């Protein structure tokens, strides 16, 4: 029995990053990039390391570049953490797992550390493979919580639910993380939206912008938890952008979406420190006439473009700052 599962990159469209602050967001899955997991029975439980998990390097400069692009740990810790969390969930739910082992390996084409959620995609794909192997059904709204807990509890990664929700649901989803709802049922209200409502979207990313997203959120989270008025009000306004964006999508109001995407980033900039490299992505895209906001915590942007001429200009101008432009494939 050979099991193959997959999870895709994602892009936050509106409301990002209010998901971690009881806000609202709209996100899309980006099928241009994905992580796949292959699992099959074996005498012992074996996690197969991939090239990016190697601790052998050609030189000190090779190590520097590998860590800058892939981080320190590769994908094996993500799979280990996912397996542990899956086993704990089954134990809590009194689900007896059969005594059968497996080998598991992963592949990923998602650019790392540029805000397209490559790490959580590996975890989602791992959960899907384990669910199939052990014939365990985890309710769809609950699965993103387990994926998030894998990262926060097991690996110490600061993150929100948005990425995990869209990677579990796929397509285009409006998410409301209202505090009362979250406390009552343990997860938010997730509303799939018809991807055909989406306007002409582009994504641009710069693979030189290596960073770990958890570091980006820590200071703002502390200020929000302390009740700093500026942070609380701004995060509420960012959440409201997603609410307005949902209505704009349903009304086919592309001009409104264009403005809301820009407003999302402009509000974010009021409370977050934006690096010059990240800012250059935004400014270059806007100079071309497109809207622009972060897909995640930095490293890649998303926005609305008007026509092929504008898209071609985005290709040309963003290439000058080492950024690649794609049209997201959303099903």
Automatic annotation (TrEMBL):
Record-level Gene Ontology MF annotations: ATP binding; kinase activity
Family annotation (InterPro entries): GHMP_kinase_C_sf, GHMP_kinase_N_dom, Glucuronokinase-like, Ribosomal_Su5_D2-typ_SF
Domain GHMP kinase N-terminal: 78-171
Keywords: ATP-binding, Kinase, Nucleotide-binding, Transferase
Pfam families: GHMP_kinases_N (PF00288)
Stored PANTHER family: WITH PUTATIVE URIDYL PYROPHOSPHORYLASE-RELATED (PTHR38710)
Protein name: GHMP kinase
Native species: Fibrisoma limi BUZ 3
